[in-house]
Design brief:
Elements (H helix, E strand, L loop, with lengths): L3 H4 L11 E4 L1 H9 L10 H15 L4 E4 H11 L3 H5 L5 H9 L2 H18 L5 E6 L1 H11 L9 H16 L8 E5 L9 H5 L2 H9 L3 E5 L16 E4 L9 E5 L1 H6 L10 E6 L6 H15 L1
Length: 291
């Protein structure tokens, strides 16, 4: 199986990844009746949902949303606050969220089933919150505030995320996507520099890494060393990484999306409230732009 980096557009080739979709909320509403629906109880149920969703949209990248699996399992298990007791430090909250073996076992079964279905025809990427984003999320679940998060705590979070990644290290996935929170305007280069544990583990398993930035955030290009792709709004390619141009807003409004520049691909998070006819029409337009 080729790595994600080999499939992305680069100076010598347009690549095979031209359209990357984040569509879980949309397809759950469309296929399961609600964007809050839980397809994660077992691998067979998830695969039935995945096959329908993937066949409907035909993206260039197949995505398994690891953060959603963890949240679904945590909710069924009674929630994070109940498991924490009086230990409410942000890093402790994330460790508790990620340490259970049961969701890791489900994830392994899901990845096995999805890879068997894809048969190497579409690259599989595991998408998850970045260490900082997951730390913020777990801290909020535990009733904490964002001002409790600093760069050193992010470094602890990266170690817990790296441990989770090791649990699926035997599988031939094409890469990992780390997603920052969409509204995290406080994200700094120092935070991403603390993701080193994750970069080291991904490098050891020869997995390509991609990073999705918050809307409107710009960081120095050198921060992205080690990432095969960076996804963000605007048109500026950061450093030497391929650039996923986040066209989600234009896609949702049905407005014109211009052609891609060299070493770019389209990235779209589909609004769960969009009508299916409009989604399919916009996808056809993007494929024409990327051709």
């Amino acid at each position: 199986m080729s790595t994600l980096a080999e499939m992305l557009p680069h100076s010598a080739s347009a690549g095979t990844v031209r359209l990357w979709l984040k569509s879980s909320a949309y397809t759950r509403r469309l296929l399961l009746g609600s964007e809050q629906a839980d397809p994660w109880e077992n691998a067979a149920g998830y695969l039935a949902y995945f096959v329908q969703a993937h066949g409907l949209l035909r993206p260039d990248v197949a995505v398994v949303e690891v953060g959603e699996l963890i949240d679904a399992w945590c909710a069924r298990d009674g929630g994070l606050a109940a498991r924490l007791g009086n230990r409410r430090r942000p890093a402790t909250a994330l460790r508790k969220l990620l340490e259970s073996e049961a969701p890791k076992a489900v994830l392994a079964e899901v990845v096995t089933a999805v890879l068997s279905h894809l048969r190497g025809q579409t690259p599989l990427v595991l998408s998850m919150p970045s260490p900082r984003a997951w730390l913020l999320h777990a801290n909020r679940l535990a009733g904490g505030t964002d001002d409790e998060i600093d760069a050193d705590t992010v470094e602890d979070a990266a170690m817990y995320v790296a441990d989770l990644i090791r649990s699926v290290s035997a599988f031939p996935v094409a890469g990992l996507l780390l997603e920052e929170q969409r509204d995290d305007q406080a994200l700094e280069a120092a935070h991403i520099e603390r993701y080193r544990s994750v970069l080291n583990v991904a490098g050891h398993y020869r997995w390509s890494l991609a990073l999705r930035l918050p809307s409107g955030v710009r960081l120095p290009p050198e921060v992205f060393d080690g990432f095969a792709a960076v996804i963000g709004d605007g048109n500026e390619r950061p450093g030497h990484s391929a650039f996923g141009r986040d066209d989600s807003a234009a896609f949702a409004m049905g407005t014109y999306v211009g052609p891609l520049a060299q070493e770019q691909f389209h990235f779209v998070e589909i609004n769960p409230q969009q009508q299916p006819e409009a989604v399919l029409e916009q996808l056809a337009h993007l494929r024409a732009c990327a051709a």
